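To the wet lab folks,

You asked to see what we're planning to order before we commit. Fair enough. Below is the target structure as tokens, and below that is the sequence we designed to fit it. If anything looks off to you, flag it before the synthesis order goes out.
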């Protein structure tokens, strides 16, 4: 009985700290992801960061793993065909567009080269490479698929971040309107359909 209470209390404390990371990141930005602001946002003593996560980097690593699209939200289908790739890309587009947190995580990753972010990016790249290898391996394409997918994914990242940061158009496309988001999604699907 005592062990269950300790376990429950530990889970609550971890949850508070992870939620505080999100709060600090979305309200103040990644430059404020430090022990003191996180402890203030969680109302948890800083010793508990070290107890539960080893250090601040451990807490941030756990937070990133739980919130990264490729590492936590993506369900990879068994058969990697054009439809599966279109589904993955449209899910990614919608997930990032709908989440201020995912946009902040991408900006943080692009802005700061710390080891935690590099490791998450490498893990994400491994998953992406497996998807590409499976997709190419199940087809006989003449098209050089990896550069095409790299341009699509980087376009998704940029367009979703740009629209929320600047609120302006890009190449005449206003990502803040449903009509233009639909145009972009249809173009992504069309590009995948044209792979030969």
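Sequence we intend to order:
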């Amino acid at each position: 009985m005592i062990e269950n209470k300790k376990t429950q209390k530990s889970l609550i404390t971890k949850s508070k700290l992870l939620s505080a990371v999100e709060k600090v990141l979305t309200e103040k930005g990644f430059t404020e992801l430090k022990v003191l602001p996180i402890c203030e946002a969680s109302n948890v003593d800083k010793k508990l960061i070290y107890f539960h996560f080893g250090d601040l980097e451990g807490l941030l690593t756990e937070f990133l793993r739980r919130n990264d699209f490729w590492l936590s939200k993506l369900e990879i289908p068994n058969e990697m065909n054009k439809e599966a790739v279109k589904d993955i890309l449209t899910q990614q587009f919608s997930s990032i567009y709908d989440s201020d947190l995912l946009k902040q995580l991408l900006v943080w990753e692009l802005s700061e080269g710390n080891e935690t972010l590099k490791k998450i990016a490498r893990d994400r790249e491994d998953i992406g490479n497996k998807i590409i290898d499976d997709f190419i391996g199940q087809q006989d394409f003449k098209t050089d698929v990896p550069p095409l997918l790299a341009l699509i994914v980087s376009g998704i990242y940029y367009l979703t971040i740009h629209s929320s940061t600047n609120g302006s158009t890009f190449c005449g496309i206003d990502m803040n309107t449903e009509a233009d988001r639909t145009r972009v999604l249809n173009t992504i699907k069309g590009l995948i359909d044209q792979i030969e």
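Structural context that might help your review: Residues 2-28 form the longest helix (27 residues). The chain is about 75% helix and 0% strand.

Thanks,
Computational group
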